[in-house]
């Protein structure tokens, strides 16, 4: 056992909120953008308590299934004002919200992937981010054929990645440990 105290390089710790968030981070698109919707949820720890100092980062394709990345084989996307990236710290209730557009299907190994949003969770005490996905409940056929979603054998575990529809968007609560723990991917 080490007698040395933990240093900033060993934990996300209290330094998380200094450099990662920015004022328009929760807005992958501007408010008022046609088709914009909210992705919301609450981050919970293993005891079921809200995590009030986590950071949620989303990365996604545009509505045509294209990424803002030079390696996208279909060419650059042409959707002004859509960033494809959102970043939101959780608030005093452990909640987050990202304003974005619903992504389209994305080609992948083994076939098209259903429309989804990649989510990274950063937090105090976590040495590394954890990565999960949000899938859309109305995309039943695409979800049933998605090779990544189908790589999860347990139907109850798969269900932790499917959001619930809300009036102005979707909700995906994230449970870091314990009962109903969200599925995280080893990337």
From TrEMBL:
Keyword list, A-Z: Dioxygenase, Oxidoreductase
Pfam families: Dioxygenase_C
Region ranges (Disordered): 63-86
InterPro entries, A to Z: Intradiol_dOase_C, Intradiol_dOase_core, Intradiol_RC_Dioxygenase, Protocat_dOase_a
Basic and acidic residues bias spans: 63-75
Protein name: Protocatechuate 3,4-dioxygenase alpha subunit
SUPFAM superfamilies for the chain: Aromatic compound dioxygenase
Organism lineage string: Bacteria, Bacillati, Actinomycetota, Actinomycetes, Streptosporangiales
Enzyme nomenclature, EC number: 1.13.11.3
UniProt entry tagged with the keyword Zinc: no
Residues of the Intradiol ring-cleavage dioxygenases domain: 36-166
Family to which this protein belongs: Belongs to the intradiol ring-cleavage dioxygenase family.
GO function term, MF aspect, one: protocatechuate 3,4-dioxygenase activity
């Amino acid at each position: 056992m080490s007698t040395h105290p933990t240093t900033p390089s060993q934990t996300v710790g209290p330094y998380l909120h200094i450099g990662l968030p920015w004022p328009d981070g929760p807005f992958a698109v501007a408010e008022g953008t046609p088709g914009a919707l909210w992705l919301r949820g609450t981050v919970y720890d293993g005891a079921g308590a809200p995590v009030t100092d986590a950071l949620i980062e989303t990365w996604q394709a545009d509505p045509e299934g294209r990424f803002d990345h030079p390696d996208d084989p279909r060419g650059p996307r042409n959707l002004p004002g859509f960033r494809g990236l959102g970043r939101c710290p959780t608030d005093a209730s452990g909640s987050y919200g990202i304003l974005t557009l619903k992504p389209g299907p994305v080609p992948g190994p083994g076939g098209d992937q259903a429309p989804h949003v990649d989510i990274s969770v950063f937090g105090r005490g976590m040495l590394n981010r954890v990565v999960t996905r949000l899938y859309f409940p109305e995309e039943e056929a695409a979800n049933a054929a998605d090779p990544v979603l189908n790589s999860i054998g347990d139907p109850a575990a798969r269900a932790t990645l499917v959001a619930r529809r809300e009036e102005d968007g979707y909700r995906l609560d994230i449970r870091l440990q314990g009962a109903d723990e969200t599925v995280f991917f080893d990337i």
